[in-house]
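Bench notes, afternoon.
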Amino acid sequence: MREKFIQKLDPVLDLEISPNMRISELVESMYKCSGFTARKLSIAAKILLRMMEDKKCFNLLSFPAAIIATGIRGIIVEFIKRGYFDCIITTCGTIDHDLARTFRSYYYGWFEAKDRRLHKLNIHRIGNIFAPVESYGLIIEEKTKELLNELWENDIRRISTREIIWELAKRVIDKSKNRERSIIWWAWKKGIPIYVPGITDGAFGFQLFLFSQDHDFVIDVLRDEKELSDIVWSTMRMGGLIIGGGISKHHLIWWAQFRNGLKYAVYLTTAVEHDGSLSGARPKEAISWGKISEKEKKIVVEGDATITLPLLAGYLVEKIPKRESKKII
């Protein structure tokens, strides 16, 4: 019995690197020629490939804001340009960082910085990224006010998060010389909806609140939910790349349960599951809720998304240069 069991197992091989090795070759070789999380990354790549090739699958992407303060913003832009995903669910901070970096610069710092000194210098820290106050709060306030005043002058009194993000792209970001680096701008150009269920949790959302104090102006989040409902009930099946956790992760899998759960699910996370958090919950837990289909393709890759995501992106770009995204809105 023991020998029959062992005969079914794949032997561990050594990973060999060559000067002309392609990213896709490296990722694929991690399956048989590595171990631990690297093997899981290779499985994730295969799942995403199948998800992209499935013409009846509606692909969703969720991620938190922190990675948009880094160069990983360029990976998300590339995903949108190549039509890999049909819908994005994220946080208000994504709008903050994308808007701010379209008009100002962030800088490389260090994790060990003296934060009291940074506070006195009016520099915010996001891990080892430095954002001077004029590159964050001030520019977000300026550009958001510009947008809101223009919407008000055009008699727009009620708007969803998806709609106001597209309006931000059209009326503000489109004027910037750096517009093609913007997630928001590319989503608008490609017709990819971005939903932010926690819209008030950030600088952009705070400006919406301030504007509403002396204007009869409403952000209609229920209109977003109606659109998500229409998406769920009009698609054959759904797949998701879920980076990090929090509200963006939960909102994606919450809606997926109404379509028999995700057929394809890839989680990239650094969170642990022993505290019972949604951020740390593994795909198998989502099965108990019906948010991921019982027998479908799923994997969780533990690790920093600023490392794992570029490898997966490089793999996909080599395998599928372009995909036609589904226009539902």
